[in-house]
Amino acid sequence: MKQFFAFLALAVVSLLLAQMSYSFDFGGLLEDLAKPKPQAPPERQRASPQEQPAEQDSGGLLGLGETLGIFDKKTSRILKKSVGAVQSFQPIGLKEEKTIGGSLALEVLNRFGGMYKNPALQNYVTLVGQSLAEVSDRPEIDYHFAILNTDNPNAFATPGGYVFLSVGLLRLLKNEAQLAGVLGHEVAHITQKHALQTLRRSKMLSGVSGLTMAALDKDEGLFDQVINEVSNILFTNGLDKDLEFEADKFGMEYAYRMGYHPAGLSEFIQTLEQSTSSETSIFFSTHPSPADRFQELSKILPQYKGVGLYPTLAKRYQSRIKGQL
User: Fold this and answer.
1) Which end of the chain, N or C, is surrounded by fewer C-beta atoms within 10 Å?
2) Interacting residues of 296 by C-beta distance below 8 A, sequence separation 6+
3) In 10 A of CB 25, how many CB atoms?
4) Are 143 and 190 a contacting pair, CB within 8 Å?
5) How many H-runs (helices) and E-runs (strands) does the chain carry?
6) Residue 231 and residue 226: Cα distance in Å, rounded?
7) What is the pTM of this model?
8) pLDDT tens-digit profile of 190-245?
9) Taking a C-beta distance cutoff of 8 angstroms, is the pair 158, 234 a contact?
10) What is the pLDDT of residues 5-17, one digit of tens each?
């Protein structure tokens, strides 16, 4: 039954590709992102002592420890402040995620040749990418896909739903299943919030209680620090190798859910290892070695049973990119 629905989903994609009426103005979106951020509203006047709620006792073990005399009052105050600091750093919300990711999307375009102006190819990549996003673990957010005008094989994802593939990478792909695997890997970085996870562990945020829109608007220096930190994560230091392995795992899974042969990503990684053009690629330098990635995926692939009939769609991919690159 699962196989039937996967083939049905892929058939729908095929029908849409045949019509090819889908379009998306990524440039218009980025123009909106480039506009100055609205100024934060004036800070509300501090409430008078009568209006401020009384400080709540922490209760639990800290309160019990103070009552029983295990902690003196000074120690108890220090511990309460520490607990409060940990609790106050809330998960980064979607608005903040999209603001950070949108600014980084502009940086990706500035660093890597801008957009490749080919509407037909853009529509094709977008349709495959959107189909994968629909079967991902975060289908509710808006995803945006763009092709970078650079010969180096690169791929990036920034928080909030922005995915980029380069012309050079598209040239290395041999079929649509490989395209789905690569796009799935990048979508997985977004669904699993890998960049944000890494940002939250950063020393740069050690004194920051939370990344809210109010905080980012109020302190432009903080916003710039955040962008620089995530930029270093994506373009210089790379993510932790375990996060990259996780993105590979989910990328394979998303492609499989859409009805593609799950081996597409691992086959592409083999191609990447053999490619001389990958030596200058950030996609290569900020990821674990292709050999290690292939080895990890090889452990997972046998879990997918009965995929012999799942297509790779090599002819369709070649027909779509022919004369477009």
Assistant:
1) N
2) 245, 248, 249
3) 10
4) yes
5) 16, 3
6) 8
7) 0.75
8) 999 999 998 888 755 554 445 554 555 566 676 788 888 889 888 888 999 999 99
9) yes
10) 565 566 556 655 6
